[in-house]
Amino acid sequence: MMCALARQPVTLMSITSLLVQSLPVLAQGAVLTVKFAVLSMIFGLIAGAMLALMGVSHNHALNWIARIYVSVMRGTPLLVQIFVIYYGLPSFSISLNPTPAGVIALSANVAAYLSESMRGAILGIRQGQWLAAYSLGLSRRQTLRYVIAPQALRIAVPSLSNSLISLIKDTSLVSVITVTELLRSAQEVIASTYQPLPLYLAAAAVYWVLCQVLEAVQRWYERRLALPSRH
Q: N or C of the chain: less Cβ packing under 10 Å?
Protein backbone atom coordinates (compact mmCIF):
# COMPACT_ATOMS: atom_id res chain seq x y z
CA MET A 1 0.00 0.00 0.00
CA MET A 2 2.78 2.44 0.93
CA CYS A 3 4.69 1.58 -2.27
CA ALA A 4 1.57 2.41 -4.22
CA LEU A 5 1.35 5.75 -2.47
CA ALA A 6 4.94 6.44 -3.48
CA ARG A 7 4.02 6.17 -7.17
CA GLN A 8 1.15 8.62 -6.87
CA PRO A 9 1.56 12.37 -7.46
CA VAL A 10 2.35 14.24 -4.28
CA THR A 11 -0.84 15.98 -3.18
CA LEU A 12 -2.20 17.11 0.15
CA MET A 13 -4.58 14.17 0.14
CA SER A 14 -1.83 11.65 -0.60
CA ILE A 15 0.40 13.13 2.11
CA THR A 16 -2.46 13.00 4.61
CA SER A 17 -3.18 9.39 3.67
CA LEU A 18 0.51 8.53 4.01
CA LEU A 19 0.74 10.09 7.47
CA VAL A 20 -2.42 8.35 8.64
CA GLN A 21 -1.12 4.98 7.47
CA SER A 22 2.30 5.68 9.01
CA LEU A 23 0.86 6.77 12.33
CA PRO A 24 0.94 3.32 14.03
CA VAL A 25 4.61 2.86 13.12
CA LEU A 26 5.53 6.36 14.27
CA ALA A 27 3.53 5.87 17.47
CA GLN A 28 5.48 2.71 18.29
CA GLY A 29 8.72 4.60 17.70
CA ALA A 30 7.51 7.48 19.87
CA VAL A 31 6.70 5.07 22.72
CA LEU A 32 10.22 3.66 22.55
CA THR A 33 11.65 7.19 22.45
CA VAL A 34 9.74 8.07 25.63
CA LYS A 35 10.95 4.83 27.22
CA PHE A 36 14.56 5.69 26.40
CA ALA A 37 14.16 9.25 27.64
CA VAL A 38 12.50 8.28 30.94
CA LEU A 39 15.01 5.55 31.78
CA SER A 40 17.94 7.78 30.83
CA MET A 41 16.50 10.65 32.90
CA ILE A 42 16.15 8.44 35.99
CA PHE A 43 19.61 6.90 35.76
CA GLY A 44 21.14 10.20 34.64
CA LEU A 45 19.69 12.08 37.62
CA ILE A 46 20.97 9.44 40.05
CA ALA A 47 24.44 9.41 38.51
CA GLY A 48 24.44 13.21 38.18
CA ALA A 49 23.61 13.65 41.86
CA MET A 50 26.44 11.31 42.83
CA LEU A 51 28.88 13.17 40.59
CA ALA A 52 27.72 16.51 41.99
CA LEU A 53 28.35 15.31 45.55
CA MET A 54 31.77 14.05 44.50
CA GLY A 55 32.42 17.44 42.88
CA VAL A 56 31.75 19.37 46.10
CA SER A 57 33.42 16.79 48.31
CA HIS A 58 36.49 17.66 50.37
CA ASN A 59 37.98 14.36 49.21
CA HIS A 60 40.40 15.37 46.45
CA ALA A 61 40.36 11.91 44.83
CA LEU A 62 36.57 11.93 44.46
CA ASN A 63 36.70 15.52 43.28
CA TRP A 64 39.19 14.74 40.53
CA ILE A 65 37.34 11.61 39.42
CA ALA A 66 34.17 13.67 38.98
CA ARG A 67 36.01 16.41 37.10
CA ILE A 68 37.72 13.99 34.73
CA TYR A 69 34.47 12.14 34.05
CA VAL A 70 32.58 15.35 33.31
CA SER A 71 35.40 16.61 31.10
CA VAL A 72 35.51 13.41 29.05
CA MET A 73 31.74 13.07 28.63
CA ARG A 74 31.20 16.73 27.75
CA GLY A 75 34.27 16.86 25.52
CA THR A 76 33.42 13.92 23.27
CA PRO A 77 30.42 13.51 20.93
CA LEU A 78 27.49 11.47 22.21
CA LEU A 79 27.49 9.52 18.94
CA VAL A 80 31.07 8.39 19.60
CA GLN A 81 30.12 7.36 23.14
CA ILE A 82 27.26 5.25 21.78
CA PHE A 83 29.65 3.53 19.34
CA VAL A 84 32.22 2.90 22.09
CA ILE A 85 29.62 1.26 24.35
CA TYR A 86 27.87 -0.78 21.67
CA TYR A 87 30.72 -1.66 19.31
CA GLY A 88 33.77 -1.18 21.56
CA LEU A 89 32.85 -3.05 24.74
CA PRO A 90 32.60 -6.44 22.95
CA SER A 91 36.41 -6.20 22.63
CA PHE A 92 36.44 -6.69 26.43
CA SER A 93 33.88 -9.52 26.24
CA ILE A 94 31.06 -7.18 27.25
CA SER A 95 28.26 -7.42 24.71
CA LEU A 96 25.10 -5.37 25.17
CA ASN A 97 21.84 -5.40 23.29
CA PRO A 98 20.97 -2.14 21.50
CA THR A 99 18.39 -1.02 24.07
CA PRO A 100 20.54 -1.25 27.23
CA ALA A 101 23.55 0.07 25.32
CA GLY A 102 21.54 3.11 24.24
CA VAL A 103 20.18 3.75 27.74
CA ILE A 104 23.64 3.47 29.28
CA ALA A 105 25.15 5.84 26.74
CA LEU A 106 22.41 8.45 27.12
CA SER A 107 22.43 8.19 30.92
CA ALA A 108 26.20 8.46 31.15
CA ASN A 109 26.24 11.49 28.87
CA VAL A 110 23.40 13.45 30.45
CA ALA A 111 24.74 12.70 33.95
CA ALA A 112 27.78 14.85 33.22
CA TYR A 113 25.64 17.87 32.32
CA LEU A 114 23.20 17.34 35.17
CA SER A 115 26.03 17.03 37.69
CA GLU A 116 27.46 20.39 36.69
CA SER A 117 24.04 22.03 37.05
CA MET A 118 23.65 20.50 40.51
CA ARG A 119 27.21 21.29 41.57
CA GLY A 120 26.87 24.90 40.43
CA ALA A 121 23.60 25.26 42.33
CA ILE A 122 25.12 23.84 45.51
CA LEU A 123 28.12 26.16 45.26
CA GLY A 124 25.72 29.05 44.60
CA ILE A 125 24.29 28.79 48.14
CA ARG A 126 25.90 31.34 50.43
CA GLN A 127 28.49 30.08 52.89
CA GLY A 128 26.45 31.58 55.73
CA GLN A 129 23.83 28.86 55.19
CA TRP A 130 26.44 26.19 55.90
CA LEU A 131 27.76 28.01 58.96
CA ALA A 132 24.26 28.56 60.36
CA ALA A 133 23.48 24.85 60.01
CA TYR A 134 26.78 23.87 61.63
CA SER A 135 26.00 26.21 64.54
CA LEU A 136 22.77 24.27 65.09
CA GLY A 137 24.73 21.04 65.41
CA LEU A 138 24.00 19.61 61.97
CA SER A 139 26.65 17.51 60.29
CA ARG A 140 27.85 18.26 56.76
CA ARG A 141 25.63 15.49 55.38
CA GLN A 142 22.59 16.74 57.30
CA THR A 143 23.29 20.31 56.23
CA LEU A 144 23.51 19.27 52.60
CA ARG A 145 20.32 17.22 52.80
CA TYR A 146 18.04 19.47 54.83
CA VAL A 147 19.38 22.99 54.22
CA ILE A 148 21.43 23.23 51.03
CA ALA A 149 19.73 20.73 48.71
CA PRO A 150 16.21 22.26 48.89
CA GLN A 151 17.59 25.71 48.08
CA ALA A 152 19.92 24.40 45.38
CA LEU A 153 17.05 22.54 43.71
CA ARG A 154 15.19 25.80 43.07
CA ILE A 155 18.29 27.21 41.39
CA ALA A 156 19.05 24.09 39.36
CA VAL A 157 15.59 23.24 37.99
CA PRO A 158 15.77 25.41 34.81
CA SER A 159 19.22 24.11 33.90
CA LEU A 160 18.29 20.51 34.72
CA SER A 161 15.15 20.79 32.60
CA ASN A 162 17.14 22.10 29.63
CA SER A 163 19.44 19.09 29.81
CA LEU A 164 16.50 16.69 30.04
CA ILE A 165 14.75 18.36 27.10
CA SER A 166 17.94 17.98 25.07
CA LEU A 167 17.98 14.32 26.11
CA ILE A 168 14.66 13.71 24.35
CA LYS A 169 16.17 14.94 21.09
CA ASP A 170 19.40 13.02 21.69
CA THR A 171 17.46 9.75 21.76
CA SER A 172 17.38 10.01 17.97
CA LEU A 173 21.07 9.07 17.92
CA VAL A 174 20.42 5.54 19.17
CA SER A 175 18.91 4.83 15.75
CA VAL A 176 22.50 4.23 14.57
CA ILE A 177 22.64 1.02 16.64
CA THR A 178 19.43 -0.36 15.13
CA VAL A 179 17.08 0.79 17.89
CA THR A 180 13.71 1.38 16.27
CA GLU A 181 12.85 4.61 18.06
CA LEU A 182 10.97 7.49 16.46
CA LEU A 183 13.59 8.59 13.91
CA ARG A 184 14.41 5.09 12.74
CA SER A 185 10.70 4.27 12.50
CA ALA A 186 10.30 7.27 10.22
CA GLN A 187 13.30 6.17 8.15
CA GLU A 188 11.87 2.69 7.71
CA VAL A 189 8.61 4.13 6.39
CA ILE A 190 10.56 6.49 4.12
CA ALA A 191 12.47 3.52 2.68
CA SER A 192 9.20 2.01 1.43
CA THR A 193 7.35 5.19 0.46
CA TYR A 194 10.11 7.49 -0.85
CA GLN A 195 8.41 10.45 0.83
CA PRO A 196 11.06 11.85 3.20
CA LEU A 197 9.79 15.38 3.73
CA PRO A 198 6.35 14.73 5.29
CA LEU A 199 7.64 11.86 7.39
CA TYR A 200 10.68 13.72 8.71
CA LEU A 201 8.42 16.68 9.48
CA ALA A 202 6.02 14.35 11.28
CA ALA A 203 8.87 12.93 13.35
CA ALA A 204 10.07 16.45 14.13
CA ALA A 205 6.55 17.38 15.23
CA VAL A 206 6.43 14.43 17.63
CA TYR A 207 9.79 15.42 19.14
CA TRP A 208 8.48 18.97 19.53
CA VAL A 209 5.33 17.77 21.29
CA LEU A 210 7.38 15.66 23.70
CA CYS A 211 9.62 18.63 24.48
CA GLN A 212 6.58 20.85 25.03
CA VAL A 213 5.18 18.36 27.52
CA LEU A 214 8.45 18.37 29.46
CA GLU A 215 8.55 22.17 29.37
CA ALA A 216 5.04 22.25 30.84
CA VAL A 217 6.16 19.90 33.62
CA GLN A 218 9.15 22.17 34.23
CA ARG A 219 6.97 25.28 34.59
CA TRP A 220 4.56 23.44 36.90
CA TYR A 221 7.41 22.23 39.10
CA GLU A 222 9.01 25.67 39.24
CA ARG A 223 5.70 27.13 40.43
CA ARG A 224 5.40 24.37 43.00
CA LEU A 225 8.90 25.06 44.33
CA ALA A 226 8.16 28.78 44.49
CA LEU A 227 5.01 28.39 46.62
CA PRO A 228 6.71 28.32 50.07
CA SER A 229 8.60 31.52 49.33
CA ARG A 230 5.32 33.43 48.96
CA HIS A 231 4.43 33.06 52.61
A: C
- Give the model's pLDDT for residue 16: 83
Q: Which pLDDT belongs to residue 15?
A: 79
Q: Is the pLDDT of residue 4 over 60?
A: no
CB atoms within 10 A of CB 77: 10
**Conformational region of residue 52, where left means phi above 0, alpha means psi within -120 to 50, and beta covers everything else:** alpha
Does the predicted model carry a pTM greater than 0.70? Answer: yes
Name the residue type at position 226: A
Q: Read off the pLDDT of each residue in 49-55 and give the average, rounded to a whole number.
A: 94
Q: Residue by residue, what is the 3-state secondary structure of the chain?
A: CHHHHHHCCCCHHHHHHHHHHHHHHHHHHHHHHHHHHHHHHHHHHHHHHHHHHHHCCCCHHHHHHHHHHHHHHHHCCHHHHHHHHHHHHHHHCCCCCHHHHHHHHHHHHHHHHHHHHHHHHHHCCCHHHHHHHHHCCCCHHHHHHHHHHHHHHHHHHHHHHHHHHHHHHHHHHHHHHCCCCHHHHHHHHHHHHCCHHHHHHHHHHHHHHHHHHHHHHHHHHHHHHHHHHHC
